[in-house]
Each structure stands twice: as C-alpha cells, then as structure tokens.
Amino acid sequence: MRPTVTAEPFATARLDVLPLRVAHAAEMAVVLGDPALHTFIGGAPATPEALRARYERLVAGSPDPSVSWCNWVLRVRDAGRPVGTVQATVTGQEHAEIAEIAWVVGTPWQGRGFAREAAAGLVGRLREQGVRTIVAHIHPDHHASAAVARSAGLSATAERQDGEVRWRLTAAP
Length: 173
Fold this sequence. Notes:
By secondary structure, the protein is of the alpha+beta class. Helices cover about 30% and strands about 35% of the residues.
C-alpha cells in the first residue's frame, strides 16, 4: 500500500506549517544551531551546507514506495520567522497507515507552546487523512516532549526503541 499523506501546507492558530524546501537550510541552520537543542535528539548542530544536503535527500523522498517522508517548517505567522520543524514518516500497511512523528523547536522559542500547537496540528492533519496509528519516540528524561505528546493525544507505552519511550495514538477504524 502506498501512503496517501503528503506534505501539504497547513496552519494552526499562530503557525504556518510549510512543506520543507532545500531553500530553508540556511535559516533552519540558525534555528537548530544551539548545541543544547541536541541533548535529547542527538547529534550536533549542522552547518547550512550539511543541512542543505540533508534537505535535498528529504525533499527527494523515500526510495521505498511504501514510505512517505513528510517534513514541514514551522513559521510564526506574526513574526514571519521559522522556529522549528515537524515531520511524519508515513508507512502504508495492509489496511491502514502508520505515521511516526517528531517535532523540534529552536531553543529561543521553547516554552511558548509552539511544539504543542504544531504537534496537535500535525496529529489532526494526519487523522483527517486517514492515518489511524500515530507514534512518537521520546527520551524518558525529556519531560517537555512527553507533555507535547500527551497534549497531542498520544499515550506512553511500555515499549522502548533505542532507549526511547514509544508513545502511541490509535484511532478507531
């Protein structure tokens, strides 16, 4: 089954959620440039060039036709500036689609509810498009991301993957 979800623009109360473009790399390198941001997500800040190469791969899409890579940039509508990203990797299954989601908000914009707003908007969009199971993987000590997942309707499970807690929302068929 080929996933039906694509990275189309959508909006929340304060955010324009725009499909990722290679041209976003330079400004997103600034947004994601704080080393502290990578405490729970791993890695280190990417240079604009490295982020550009990564975005080229993401925008090209998954080589697996049963997987759709959907990536968006979060732009604060009133300020016109990017503050983070959300993503969904959607996998076509036999009778449904499963989306693994993630969100990142740059350090200067954390604590303002942008991650909650974006994650809730993403979950709503995915459910509107028929995705029944939504999953997020969160470091057990990342309490802010756990709160974001909870507010988006996901619940922690007993499952672990690479040391992270698997959170899940499964809608009725």
